Amino acid sequence: MSPSKKRYLVTSALPYANGALHLGHLAGAYLPADIYVRYLRMKGEEVLFVCGSDEHGAAITMRAKKEGVSPKEIIDKYHELNKTTFECLGISFDIYHRTSDPLHHETAQQFFLRLYERGDQFEERTTEQYYDEEYQQFLADRYIVGTCPKCGYEEAYGDQCEKCGSALSPLELINPRSVLSGKPPVLRQTTHWYFRLDKHEGWLREWISQGTLDGRPHHDPAKWRKHVVGQCTSWLDQGLQPRAITRDLDWGVPVPLEGAAGKVLYVWFDAPIGYISATRRWAKDQGQDWEAWWKGEEVQLVHFIGKDNIVFHCIVFPAMLKAHGEFALPVNVPANQFLNFEGQKFSKSRGWGLEQHEYLEAFKDFPNREDALRWALARNLPENRDSDFKWDEFVEFHDKELADNLGNFINRVVVLTNKYFGGKVPALSGPWTEILAPVRQLARQWSASIEDFNLKQAALLFMEVSSWGNQYLQEQAPWALYKEDKQHPRLAEIMGVALQVAALLSMMAEPYVPFSAARLRKLLGMGSLRKGEWAEAMEALDAGMPILPEGHQIGEPQILFAKIADRKDDSRLKIVEQQKAKLKALQEKAEDTVALPYPPVAPQIAYDDFAKLDIRTGTILAAERVPKTDKLLKLTVDIGIEKRTVVSGIAHQYEPEAVIGQRVLLLANLAPRKLRDILSQGMILMAEDKEGKLVFVQPADPTMDNGAKVS
Fold it and tell me: Counting CB atoms within 10 angstroms of each CB, which of 145, 434, 525, 576 has the fewest?
């Protein structure tokens, strides 16, 4: 249990300074990282926890334009809001930096130049891009709107239609217009630099699948989550392509080359470098060497992210680090899946969900508001599959586990110790080390679970230790012995064992419910948790030495967790009921607004119009994801007379392997068009249910040959 000589650099995904963060963000990347970091500190490891605001990109400039303010006003507002809420919720960053800091600009530019000077990592490409003649600037994808070619929505962006969800390119839009001037843009040539991601495909595949780097063991791939490895493997199987790392924009890190005026580093390139610049800023403030945290075999780099960031942290950023040639690569990227909210996805536009600062405000008079939320999220972390935050579970986790289990045990121990021994730890006697053997075993399992990033399992083991303590007291019934004989010789043994369990729990509580842990330690007279104290405590117990020595003075009884569903005081439950009432009102409003579960029938057409459609039966033979998109699949479809390549926007609902062999109907005489440089030769017919689920339209007879015409 002694600390290793490793140096842990832990990062959480840089949140975009374009809005407030909701509870799903907290459960995805920030709370898990904080749990892990707090554990490492109490174990005695050298650890640095960095994060900060991602403050560049077109989305911020668009929001600034809509609100009539400067981009700096936007980033300042949300940087401070998110930083403050993280602090209130106990997310213990060593530094919360920001990418607008000149030190970050310098770091990102130096990184770019290092790769540029190598000569083989970039390539220049000249392409046509939309340009606003009135504003005299090239337009980022989000600065272009037009009619979606798939659903006809007239306000689709140049990268995505927010109505039907289709991934788009600006050139696909019908009647495109500039968001800035409102006028049709023109195409002009522009030159950009592309990172040769394709050059790194070989070693990345070996590194991800086998955990080896340059022929030497680097990490244990068995400890990486399956969905992380699966997503990376899928990308690699499709073949990596050069990726643009610059864009024409006036907000961001300027490209440090002659002739690059008006060009900035693409935000996907400069944002992860923010981890490095944050470390540099921290080291500069602390008078330390930042390179010691990024370079050398002892560095253990761990990225905590959501699943939407897997490719950037497992493929793109590692390739950047390897291309640079000096930096350590991540030993694990424990990406979480998504957290839903009462059965639905978080949606700011619909008001569905709860942002971090909204929770803190609504529950400002709520005892243990921070730990109640941390515990509810920790108990339901979406580690390997999407999970769901529910208010009823929020109450249940707090009342049944924190209050009835942990709180009840601690209260019993403190009350009885004060009553039997004047609040002093008695001399341990009897086979107390053997009695504590199951607890020590649970504690070791708890440590192993956290070190393997099974944080939800560790939360259950924490409660299991508390349950053991409750059961031990119940079975030994010291109150009965005390009633029989106030000097009963077994009282010291029983209460001594219970006090050692309470001391262990005060440390196990630290990563999950740190505010309550501090109160618990004060109650036990233990003071603030010291670095390495967990390792010392486990070593002491293994050596037959107590954590709390004989004569140690504890405090007076105190309620640690005031129950939410309290018959005598319903004020806390009312706060929760108000949140549930808000959601119910939103649901009722949605039901009243949408009378029909499906869109109305489109305007009538003549039979001749229908007769022009050539719809054929077919079978999907192969499927793969389209690189750099979340929603597109490249399909090979057999329609009897030939095989067609079709690009379909269904990747957000169907994995490639799940659609192979699927019978389909294909609109075969649709004019071909390029989507992400792939010529799509037709359209798969799909039906969408009232929940938004896409379902294949297929022939009822599975024996029907491919190529049969629908009429």
Answer: 434
